[in-house]
Write a structure and sequence with these properties.
- The chain has 254 residues and is of the alpha/beta class.
- The protein has a single domain, classed as Rossmann fold (3-Layer(aba) Sandwich), CATH 3.40.50.1820.
- The chain is 45% helix and 14% strand.
- It has a 7-stranded mixed beta sheet with strand order 1-3-2-4-5-6-7, sandwiched between helices.
- Pfam families: Abhydrolase_6 (PF12697).
- InterPro entries: AB_hydrolase_1, AB_hydrolase_fold.
- This is AB hydrolase-1 domain-containing protein.
Amino acid sequence: MTATIEYTDQGHGKPVIFVHGFCETKEMWGKFIEAFSGEYRVLCPDLPGFGDSRWYDETISLEQAAEMLQDWIHDLALEKPVVIGHSLGGYAALALAELMGDELGGLGLFHSTAFADDEEKIGVRNRTLTFVKKHGVNVFVDSFVPPLFTQAHRESMKATIQKVVQIARKTTYEGLVSFTKAMRDRKDRMDVLRDFSGKKLMIAGVLDGAVKIDDSRKHQVYVDIYHELPDAGHMGMFEQEATTMQMVRDFLEW
């Protein structure tokens, strides 16, 4: 099954692609588009099943998603794009790096990991599938999104969290189910991260409940630039907006 990748495309210059995470869309990167499109060509795709990219199957693989992104990159004739992915977007970026190699100019993992799911995480994915089949997308995302932010931020960032919930509600049932399975079944890509010849960035949240900081720290030896956000959970682009923007800027200029 094919899918059309819908996307935003702003600015001119070196292409930088921001790939959203699970139950997210290209809208997640609005402030980053504003910050970087004056110097770079900033592209933000919707993965199939999220946002405006349609997907009508309950199965997809990270490899399939990467092939779709590769076709999209080739269709746009993007040369040496830097690809930065949040969470699921990082998994897709790693699969893309495995596929495209040095056709990419750089790789960034933003609250993401090259490890496959462990048994505990596989159990979480399976419970998600059961829950969504019983209760639907909206009930799931209403409970899923707030814990991605640290407890300390949930009161002060209520409006932001509600905005992210509304974005998440745009997720299709098929997109949610298919990518839950894809994340559960993905392979370890630490060797891809290690062997990728372009520049590499990792941003980790010390308080991230979705990607444990101890696991993130095991990536340090394989990336060129590694940052930890001491007061952030899984949503550093919102919880530490200015700080993470500067981290990304330093990486792009490095």
